Task: inverse folding
């Protein structure tokens, strides 16, 4: 049933979809903190050995295995929190180009990453695991020479916006996006002096 719902939702969204996203740029070198988790967990960087376990966290997404394999093949980074031998939270970071939707892509600047997927199993939410994964990822990415992290959060995604606030981020602007009969349209609003620079990152 979950897979059917996901499939029907994808079909509907491919035809008509409207949303607004806060656009963030985080300085990784200024965001290093200790992971404030409420339980003891093990953090790590995903490899091919973790694919089956990661797929198992999202059984409602039929194509998730292909998505993970594509990430690893492209050199993207997946960080996770493991509790009692089980992956319970993770976040993915892309290093080249992220396809926001059909015909609209975000080009990741040099020495930067794009946070495109973050998830915690429902029964483990509220324990600070996602923030812990992000803080662990920040440290590792800085060690590898990355300096910035870009990401979008839907303006109605209260839990993710709360996490962004806890890691000391303020949005640079708002991306208004809509799709009509599979044709994407978008606009960017910002009071930042970097508005034109932000616009150059998005490529149709």
Result:
């Amino acid at each position: 049933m979950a897979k059917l719902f996901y499939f029907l939702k994808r079909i509907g969204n491919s035809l008509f979809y409207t949303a607004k996203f806060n656009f963030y740029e985080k300085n990784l070198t200024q965001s290093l903190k200790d992971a404030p988790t409420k339980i003891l967990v093990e953090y790590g960087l995903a490899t091919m050995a973790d694919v089956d376990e990661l797929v198992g966290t999202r059984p409602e997404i039929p194509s998730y295995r292909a998505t993970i394999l594509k990430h690893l093949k492209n050199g993207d980074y997946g960080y996770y929190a493991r509790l009692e031998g089980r992956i319970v939270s993770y976040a993915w970071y892309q290093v080249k180009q992220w396809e926001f939707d059909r015909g609209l892509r975000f080009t990741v600047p040099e020495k930067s990453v794009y946070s495109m997927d973050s998830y915690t199993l429902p029964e483990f939410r509220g324990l600070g695991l996602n923030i812990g994964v992000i803080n662990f990822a920040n440290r590792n990415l800085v060690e590898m020479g990355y300096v910035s992290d870009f990401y979008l959060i839907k303006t109605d995604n209260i839990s993710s916006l709360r996490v962004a606030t806890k890691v000391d981020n303020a949005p640079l602007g708002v991306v208004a996006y809509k799709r009509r009969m599979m044709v994407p349209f978008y606009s960017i609003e910002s009071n930042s002096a970097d508005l034109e620079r932000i616009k150059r990152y998005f490529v149709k």
